[in-house]
Amino acid sequence: MCGLAGFLSTPPASGAAAEVITSMLSTIRHRGPDQAGYYLDDGLAMGTVRLAIVDPADGAQPMADPDERHWICFNGEIYNHVELRAELEGLGRPFRTDHSDTEVALQAWIQWGPACFARFNGPFALAIRDNVTGRLVLARDRYGKRPLYYAEQGGALLFASEMKSFGAFPGFRFELSPQDLAAIYAVWTPLPDRTPFAGVRQLPMGSYLEVDGDRRSLHPYEELSFDVPGFDGTEAQAVEFVRESLRTAVELRLRSDVEVGVYLSGGLDSSVVTSLATQLSRHQVRTFSVAFKDKNFDESDSQLLVAEHLGTEHCAVPVTGADIADNLPAAVYHAEMPTFRTSFVPMFLLSRHVRDAGIKTVLSGEGSDEAFLGYSLFRETMLRERWHRLDDSGRRAALATLHPELAHFGPAHQSHLLGLYQQFATERMPGLFSHELRYQNGRFAARLLASREDPFAGLLDLVAHAPGYRAMSAVQKAQWLEYKTLLPGFLLSTQGERVALAHSVENRCPFLDPAVVRAASSVNLRFDDGWNEKALLKKAFRAELPQWTTSRPKQPYRAPGSEAFKENRPDYLELLLSDAELGKLDFLDQRFARRLTDRIMTSPVEEVSTKEDQAFVYLLTTAVLHRQFVLDGAGRTSGAPAGALDLKVTVDRRRSVQTVKETQTR
Amino acid sequence: MESTTEIIRSYLEERFLFEFDEEITPDTDLFKAGVIDSFGYVRMMKFLESEFAVTIDSDEILMDVLVSLTAIDVFIQKKLAEI
């Protein structure tokens, strides 16, 4: 795993290009502390920081083909690189490394062009320069797991794995974008091509950007679709099919030249991954978990049960509200995003522990709930969709089992909930039916902004134009929205790779294997009604997991929210408590922000509703982000000194520079 | 003595951190305006039942869509008149 950064500028980059690219790379050194390198030509500077996992000996970057016409900066993993290499060698492509997947990506591009991306199984972001035509291509994986941002600055196109790199580019300044903040507050994540910062875009998942001189053209190479033929066999065969798909996905993700650990949350998905990893590893598997003192959040018992059952070497990292308050700013710095939950902070602390334990790579269970319909959101969508066809007892029976973890869904409130669901049984926002109840909380948070523009305008537009979206079932639309928003925009990024790579740990997600996603789509709702979530997945692994693991109620992963800050009063809370500080966030509705802060600070925890808690966490993380990026200019000062980079590859192809220096050390 | 309208109005304003004004009027759908969520709705029902000593059964709740101050107020006044 690595990070990349670069800039394309016409007229050609100045003589300072090497210094600038080195500074940009320094800001993301945490993503790849093992080595670094850059490539310069007339107009382009790009480089990588590298965490050496596959072919540490000769996978150094930037890497070229033997003709040195094409140069690549690659961040990610192609799990099927062995198979692709064999195929490419059969086609006559020349390879110089022993088994580097970066070289496979480069040769695949040369052989197949943009059609190569859909053949990659694994997360990636890359930049490839053709120094004959001058064309630059940026591309990103189908699920948007690896980040790739870009921005224009003074005639230059900047690109990087993390936005903070842009701060190291001369003249670049971060500004928060109220319009994008509104979408983030309302939807929980930015739109697939957006960020919280004005003028900073991200490459949408499953797409590539071609840059040819001043021309930029963005193309999707793979559309998200659940339209696969239904599984044509018995339930027992479907169970075996799911099991085998996952087994292969885990096996591929254990391809590594370093030890691979597992994040074990104690839920079904990470237990499935742990079980398969245990079977497929030659050594005892090491598992890692977050443990909370607060029993409302803690899953230690479930974690230990699985660890003991499967015989892993388990380690739990205890996290308190004070730890969350202490580490929030550092975690926000890495996330580069306002957040509605604090749950990414414990994951930030967990990755630190994992790194200190000598592990660079972990498997985790993300992606399962989206593929196998694990979230209660899917059941709720089904219920509201058939609401008008159900009688009173049918509605009550469904409501009773919808959110067993939420007190206000208990029997005492059923009459009230009937009224609520009645109102949400008809689509109000075209295409967003599945998420309309959830988005009520988002509307509340969007009131933090002074502007009263519709925070859902961008998402409504996105679904209105998404190929194939209209023809999807209500549940598939719900899946589509999860795959386009919460999964890449929070779970895989803020709570996933950004906080893992903060401590140089790469996470791998077997449930994001395209074959697993297709398998899930082919069996979902064919053998059950979806009401017992992930029923087929449970059946597939029942025999090898503790009985409790496949029968327990689903517990969403959460961490202490506003109470952690109220109780621990970190210094940076002053950003909200002081009118002068709050006033610096001039895009906010000051009155609402003040009332919300007062409510949180003065109300007992049990009086604070989920939406208030989420809105407050948004407010606080926005203030911290504003401080770090807008006022303090992240990237300008926070990066490690350039000397700290271990520059293994420096290639200077600038004809415009008098002294051509080339010091390749591989 | 406060009128039912005033009681409901101040409950909503205090509970949901807003004021009725030209933007959010007594006829505004409070869901659409981002004021009420599911948890808040259930709490509001509980409040109405205890404050006005009425019972809101499911048939009524399905008939009357209690999403604006006016609708809630009319509903409560009707319930009180029945007592």
What structural keywords apply?
heterodimer, A: 666 residues, alpha+beta, eight-stranded mixed sheet, six-stranded antiparallel sheet, 15% strand, B: 83 residues
Structure description:
The complex is a heterodimer of chains A (666) and B (83). Chain A is of the alpha+beta class and 666 residues long. In chain A, strands 10-8-9-1-3-2-18-19 form an eight-stranded mixed β-sheet, covered by helices on one side. A six-stranded antiparallel β-sheet of chain A has the order 4-5-6-7-11-12, covered by helices on one side. In chain A, strands 15-14-13-16-17 form a five-stranded parallel β-sheet, with helices on both faces. In chain A, a hairpin with a 5-residue loop joins strand 4 and strand 5. In chain A, helix 6 packs parallel to helix 7. Chain B contains four helices and no strands. Chain B has helices at 4-16, 38-51, 58-63, 69-82. In chain B, helix 1 (4-16) crosses helix 4. Chain A binds chain B through residues 392, 408, 413-420, 422-423, 428, 437, 440-444, 446-447, 452, 592, 595-596, 599, 609-612, and chain B through 16-18, 23, 31-43, 45-46, 56-58, 61-62, 65-67.
* SS strand fraction of chain A: 15-25%
Largest sheet of chain B: none
Unreliable spans of chain B are none
Strand content of chain B: under 5%
Distance between the termini of chain B: 19 Å
Mean pLDDT across all amino acids of chain A: 93
Low-confidence stretches of chain A: 658-666
> Helical residue percent of chain A?
25-40%
Instruction: State Rg of chain A.
Output: 25 Å
> What is the oligomeric state here?
heterodimer
| Alpha-beta classification of chain B | mainly alpha
Q: How helical, in percent, are the residues of chain B? A: 55-70%
Inertia-based shape of chain A = globular
Number of helices of chain A: 26
